[in-house]
What does this fold into?
Amino acid sequence: MSARLLVAGVGNIFLADDAFGPEVIRALDRRPLPPEVRVRDFGIRGMDLAYELLAGHDTVLLVDAAARGHRPGTLTLVEPDLPDRAAGGCPPEAHGMDPAKVLALAAHLGDEPLPRVLVLACEPEVLPRGDEDIAPGMSATVRDAVERAVVALHRMVPVLLADPAATASLSRPDESAALSPAGLRGTVGGGTQDR
It folds into this structure.
């Protein structure tokens, strides 16, 4: 039987702040989530993540760096619109780790609807230039956000385990607000919450 909730770190550890997702997963080794949660670092293996999205989870929480126009280190919770398999067209790209493309690939490969997907995103400070293959080291700002992300996951996961359709929150319950429209790397619609 598959875990009800998947927490998936995505990103390239050799591209500066893009290492945020994998670093959060490493930090969870020291502060594990409940056993009903599968925690895995997918790095840049988009095909592996696409197949894992089809493994019967109720909820998938992706952890990634995403430039969304906020102050560096800002954590954002996004619920992107999921692609529809019935949309047809040519098969989505099977390589790379753009979350929108991975979701499209999973929708194309599976017969069942995708699970609920949330993205815990961190605003990067250091992004590699287009010609850089390696940009080692995360910025101090994003490295500081790793621990805040672990705390946020420990707060959100019990809520999502109790009710996969619940509105997860990055802040204390009395500070929670309704999710508002936002996009993430090519997705449209959905919701977001910043911290």
